[in-house]
Please model this.
Amino acid sequence: MASSALRRVRASSVPWSGRSVVALAVAGAVLGLPLVSGCGSSAGAAGGQASPVAARSGGTSSSTATGSAASGGSSGTSWTLTAPQVAAGYRQGQPPADMVQRFDADTKQNAARLGVSGTHVHAYYADPADGAWIFYVGLNGSGYDPDHLHDILDQLPAVSDDGAGDRITTSAIDATPGPHGGRAICDTVLLRNDLITTAVTTCSWFTSTTVAGITLVSKTDGTSTKLGFTASDVAPIMRALRAQVEVRGQ
Model:
């Protein structure tokens, strides 16, 4: 059940999708929502959207993939990112231009922070059940170090005040990467003020040939059912989406 105050979470900080800009954009979006959200998901697949088949259960963290899967991917497999029109039941759509612009700006900054380059892949998928946009972005390349990239994004919880009444908590939580192996991590920005508590989370994964992440951002059309998304919300969607957008390299 979603409520007007998002439950307190361990996860926090946004690595791949961008930190402050996207967090503030999400805060601005949810301020337009009713402060008492409906319980559960919205019924049906509105607007001709495919019904998501991604499982929304399972923890964010557990034992890291073992053997060679724990760093470079399953048995040293070369993976390639794609952007199909429908992945894990989510259909591509087009978020508002200003939301895309803010997201893209922070994505570039954080790619520089990770020190990675490659062939850019991205898509925006609609999540009608939660009334959210799934921002998916990644790079195809070679020679990536999954452990090193994971560690760049791993951080202890930190709290700051922006001077405008917003208390911002950032931290990270390890995530299960799924059957393709590699490493995964979820980072969240948790924002609190006198009116609202909300969160924006990115779950990222890394192999020796792919670097990618997804972020859920509430829509501004009144269909959102949650006041933000935590690692426990995003990690299962990340694994389901990854299973279909990441394919064996040629």
Summary: The chain has a mean pLDDT of 75. The CA atoms of residues 88 and 241 lie 5 Å apart.
